[in-house]
Every structure is written in C-alpha cells, then in structure tokens.
C-alpha cells in the first residue's frame, strides 16, 4: 500500500529535523565526547561564560569563569609550569579540576586539561585546545593502536628490524602498546620490551 502524502511529508520533515539537530549538537560547545567519561557529566565552554560542568540531566554543577581561565593561561606562560584554574569543581562523583598546561607545539593554541571521576571512582582526564581568539575545541579522539591484538603470551616473536632479537612473549601492555619477550635460554638470557608495531611472529631456530 502506498503511503499517504501527508504521512510521507511528516516523516521527511522529522528526518530533516533530526539531521539539523545532530549538526547543531555537534557544535554546541561541549568538550567531552566518548570515550572521555566523567560519570555522565559534560563540560561546555565558550568565551562568554568560560567552562561549565553539567550533569546528565543538564543541571549546572560547576563554573570556571573566563577570567580565571585567562589568569591560569597567563600564569602557565610566565612560569613555564602547569597552572590550576582557580577553584576545584564538584562533579557528580567527585572533585573536578581544570589545568592550563603547555601550549600545543603544532598550533600554538593554549591547552586546558580536566581531571575528574566517573561512577566507578576511576580518575579520568582529557585535554583540549583553546585558540587565541577563545574558541574552545572539542577534546580530540585518542589514536587507537590495535597492533598488539595479534599477539598472545607465550607466542614466539622477533623484532622486525632485527630477527635475531626474538623470544617468547612474557607480557603484553595494552596501555603502552608494547610486548615484553624473553630471549631463548642458550641463545641469550634476557628480556626485551618493544612496541607491538615493531614486532612480528617468528620461528624458533637453533
């Protein structure tokens, strides 16, 4: 059965509204998005109000005024050390802090970092840039490195650049994207840690 024209128009208008809403949402001043998680709390920043932390219902938890952020940037620039923005914030699951840190080496933009907690009591952090004309940029998504996924403890591996450096994997550090492997007894009695991207499966040869 063909859909009636008014119904089709209503659906199209609703779809268009969703598209427009999504594009607005993407540039509404929010700084953290997945995977930056603070128990549902979201940080919004703009030049007029500085940075404001809202809970998942939209209730304001904390505000760091623009003047205090500018002061922290000036202090960090003059001292060469990280400077905390005045006042600890109160997040849903614990204290929150904003820190001015060294400017981004590539863009020269100022950088703010937020430290806070999630609902499991885990401390999380994120850093984001602030342009010279006070445009607050979303925290960039972290680079994902899956180079360790192909390895397992006990597997025999070797360095890509030096096949003679080989052994069985003792441990895998997913956080730092490295593997530690032990050299084969009788050949070399030691262990070695290397980035997963520089290691490949090998074969035991005597």
Walkthrough of the structure:
There is one protein chain. Strands 4, 5, 6, 7 and 8 form a five-stranded antiparallel sheet that branches. Strands 12-11-10-9-13 form a five-stranded antiparallel sheet, with no helix packed on it. Strands 1-2-3 form a three-stranded antiparallel sheet. Helices cover 17% and strands 34% of the residues. The N and C termini lie far apart (74 Å). The longest helix is centred in the N-terminal third of the chain and has 21 residues.
Q: Key terms for this structure?
A:
single chain; 206 residues; alpha+beta; 2 domains; 2 helices; 34% strand
Mean pLDDT: 82
Spans of at least 5 consecutive residues with low confidence: 9-26
Instruction: Tell me the helix content.
Output: 10-25%
Along the chain, the helix and strand elements come as HEEEHEEEEEEEEEE
What coarse outline follows from CA principal-axis ratios?
elongated
Radius of gyration: 25 Å
Number of extended strands: 13
């Amino acid at each position: 059965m063909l859909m009636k024209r008014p119904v089709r128009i209503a659906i199209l208008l609703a779809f268009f509204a969703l598209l427009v809403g999504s594009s607005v949402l993407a540039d509404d001043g929010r700084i953290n998005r997945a995977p930056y998680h603070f128990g549902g709390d979201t940080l919004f920043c703009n030049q007029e109000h500085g940075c404001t932390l809202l809970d998942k219902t939209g209730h304001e938890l904390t505000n760091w005024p623009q003047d205090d952020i500018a002061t922290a940037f000036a202090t960090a620039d003059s001292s060469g050390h990280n400077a905390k923005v005045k006042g600890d914030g109160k997040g849903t699951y614990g204290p929150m802090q904003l820190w001015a840190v060294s400017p981004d080496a590539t863009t020269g933009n100022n950088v703010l970092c937020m430290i806070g907690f999630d609902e499991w009591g885990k401390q999380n952090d994120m850093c984001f840039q602030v342009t010279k004309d006070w445009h607050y940029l979303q925290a960039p998504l972290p680079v994902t490195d899956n180079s360790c996924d192909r390895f397992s403890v006990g597997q025999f591996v070797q360095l890509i650049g030096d096949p003679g450096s080989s052994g069985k994997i003792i441990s895998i550090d997913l956080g730092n994207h490295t593997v530690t492997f032990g050299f084969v007894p009788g050949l070399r009695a030691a262990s070695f840690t290397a980035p997963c991207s520089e290691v490949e499966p090998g074969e035991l040869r005597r």
